[in-house]
């Protein structure tokens, strides 16, 4: 990363070192090297950080008071001093006691995985709701920390102030002040959520199916969203490029108009504070008619990432009966042999589509699959309307769902083919 001061901050970036504790007594499904690579990518997502280096620290078990053994602590201290490190990022949970002891032993600031993800979310949040949710999540997390200050509550920039800035260690947290601040933030968030609920209800009156893109962070959801909608959502090769939900109407070729929703990327060990804080934002997924799970099929741990996404969806209350498509993205990154193997696997599964959102390869079959999946959810029903229900009859024809109509003595008998969303909308007319 560049050592040039980030634009607008007026100070040099914080020199950071990433540690991944590889605890052999714990069952970890992922390779330590890949876990470290992801942690470094997390750190690189913050513009205020200059990652000076990274290390895998193998441990038989975690030491309760210091996490690491005394010999390893001394060894790492020398390493940090030699590289003039200001901040140590530990890829895993660190208790408040461990954090205090390690900061004292090394003479640097320390941030665990949860704190780092919170910092990234705060730096990325763009909407008022997103900012409030991150602030509440950060306060809930930091309430358990023993020594922190709260300059970020009146911050002038994105980010929570964990990484740098004046005064972040000058006072201990006043829990009563934190609780008061949480109450104020919750009141503000309630107002924002009510406004968004009104927007959601307004969208519900437009009975287009909602298609939600979900997936592991950096799987290419925003690039695919842009490819399908022609929008210009931030789509970079970095973790958590998108944090606030974006929705656009898309006319499927030869099919219905749908609302496409781009959502925040998931990640393994997602902080529980953030799952709770973003539950409202992710309600777009829970309300979706079709969930498209976007996977980076070129990633060596694509199966593990998919399992993490499924677990988080389940924790959000998204049931298995909801129609789903798997979109295997980044086909362009596969070598010929891996590409042939992926195509063979996808051909055996009707719910899988292979694409490259970057090049556009496979997009047309994907759109056809989305259309077919939504059509499969449609039902045919018989309706009888009286002559005074002209508004409802006009609405049915406007939706293009009337299959046939016969005029009777007291009105009209119609055959309609519609989605559950359209049926629910019709019931309110």
Automatic annotation (TrEMBL):
GO MF terms held by the record: GTP binding; GTPase activity; metal ion binding; ribosome binding
Keyword GTP-binding carried by entry: yes
Major place of residence: cytoplasm
PROSITE patterns: G_HFLX
One annotated Gene Ontology cellular component of this protein: cytoplasm
Protein residues bound to Mg(2+): 222, 242
Keywords: Cytoplasm, GTP-binding, Magnesium, Metal-binding, Nucleotide-binding
Binding residue positions for GTP: 215-222, 240-244, 262-265, 329-332, 356-358
Pfam families: GTP-bdg_M, GTP-bdg_N, HflX_C, MMR_HSR1
InterPro entries xrefs: G_HFLX_dom, GTP-bd, GTP-bd_M, GTPase_HflX, GTPase_HflX_N, GTPase_HflX_N_sf, HflX_C, P-loop_NTPase
Required cofactor names: Mg(2+)
Residues in Hflx-type G domain copies: 209-378
Protein location: Cytoplasm
The protein's role, per its UniProt record: GTPase that associates with the 50S ribosomal subunit and may have a role during protein synthesis or ribosome biogenesis.
Subunit description: Monomer. Associates with the 50S ribosomal subunit.
Similarity field: Belongs to the TRAFAC class OBG-HflX-like GTPase superfamily. HflX GTPase family.
Protein known as: GTPase HflX
Organism: Pseudaestuariivita atlantica
Organism lineage string: Bacteria, Pseudomonadati, Pseudomonadota, Alphaproteobacteria, Rhodobacterales
Gene behind the chain: hflX
